[in-house]
Amino acid sequence: MTEVTFTHVGGPTLLIEFEGLRLLTDPTFDAPGRTYDFGFGTSSTKVAGPALTPEEIGPVDAVLLTHDHHDDNLDAAGRAFLKDVPLVITTHSGAGRIGGTGLRPGESTRLNDVKITATPCRHGPPLSHPIVGDVIGFALEWPGQAHGPLWITGDTVLYAPLRETARTLKPGTVVFHLGGVRFPITGPLRYTMTGRDAVTLLGDMAPANVFAVHWEGWSHFRDGREGIVQAQLPLTWFPMGEALTAEV
């Protein structure tokens, strides 16, 4: 059994602490108010800031970066934070741009006793990869886990490889990236999962702990807290900026 402390900083940024390790996902620390260009006529305004500053978080052992090319997953202040991080694990293409260890889906690396495996993501509708680029999730496994791997889905829609990952990985803890991202210029097309999608994906696994991040704080989220509640997703809500401890 391992007790893991999770602290939701905001957006996709999550501090994960266990057995002396401190990991941070997708660092985003910019103040709210700015509109960011996501390319091909898409944009979004940041409407909420982080609950903690980089100084309040302090040093971390590694950053798990699902992708580097969208500002809602790595913004200017997040890039500055990376300069003092000893290890960044990200996509293979992202590592070519910012450095660090690059992984393709299915590939693994290790940090002490922790095996970190990249899991598949499709950050948009079919055939959108040339536009949206490479994105990965992360599965973390280490000796003594009570319920199974810790899975961070990353920014993805619900599609067959994601469902296969749920069935084969059998995670004990899941951190969903949700929000049902949509843009006016692309109409009904979605770029991340909704609460209903998460409920469907839960049908392929039986985790003991269910959490969600990256569903608030930006104008491009169209399925926020209300959508998650309406879908009756059985998750534990993070107290923003406060530590939550779970048996993993």
Automatic annotation (TrEMBL):
The keyword Hydrolase applies. Residues 22-215 form the Metallo-beta-lactamase domain. InterPro entries: Metallo-B-lactamas, RibonucZ/Hydroxyglut_hydro, UPF0173_UPF0282_UlaG_hydrolase. The keyword Hydrolase applies. Keywords: Hydrolase. GO terms for molecular function: hydrolase activity. This is MBL fold metallo-hydrolase. It comes from Herbidospora galbida.
